[in-house]
Amino acid sequence: MTPHILHKIRKDYQRERLLENNIQDDPFLQFKHWLDEAIDDNIDEPTAMMLSTVDANGNPSSRIVLLKDASNEGFTFFTNYESRKGEEIQHHPQVAALFFWSALERQVRIEGRAEKIESAFSDEYFLSRPLESKFAAHVSPQSKVIVGREVLETGLDAVKKRYADIEIPRPEHWGGYKIIPQYFEFWQGGSARLHDRLRYTKQPEGWKIDRLAP
Which of 71, 75, 140, 149 is the most buried (most CB within 10 A)? Predict the structure, then answer.
């Protein structure tokens, strides 16, 4: 195997600039504009976001989840409430999310508070999921130690038999969270590492926009 020299791997970003005179005053509208462009450009997994949480001792952890709704009220994703992320959000609801669209040379950072959404909305989304995804939500004790894959396969067989002739309900331990942002940062890659970074911070009267050094 040929060794990779990591410090020689670099890319010079030259796609475009992010300037104060070409952005939205509202960060939600700016995010929607960028997300729409990522989807229209056929970016792989444009709704994938890295979600970071911390445990009761302040230890951080990150993982990829999928954004399922974006509105002026916040950003919604779904998960197992008893997973590691669910337990950490219960103890410390302040979270951070990161979108990285490499082909567009862009990233968006979001910080805010995660709150459970109403159960009716979780029910509605669960009903729209593929059948195999519904089964998985019942079968997987997410983040818990299991003795082997056969635990999942045996559980899957049992769930399929249990709900062979009836609608499979949403398990109580599974549902949605909404991230209510207090902070946005939009990053556009720039040549010679002079990237554009524009920050939105929540103020009583609206949003304050600042430029950050790269």
Answer: 75
If one counts the domains in the chain, the total is 1
d(CA 37, CA 31): 10
Record the tokens describing residue 9, joined without a space. 């791997």
Q: Per-residue confidence of the chain (214 residues) as pLDDT tens digits? A: 778 999 889 899 989 999 999 999 999 999 999 999 999 999 999 999 999 999 999 999 999 999 999 999 999 999 999 999 999 999 999 999 999 999 999 999 999 999 999 999 999 999 999 999 999 999 999 999 999 999 999 999 999 999 998 999 999 999 999 999 999 999 999 999 999 999 999 999 999 999 999 9
pTM over 0.70: yes
206: left (phi over 0), alpha (psi -120 to 50) or beta: left
Task: List the catalytic residues.
Answer: 193
* CATH code of the domain in which 198 resides: 2.30.110.10
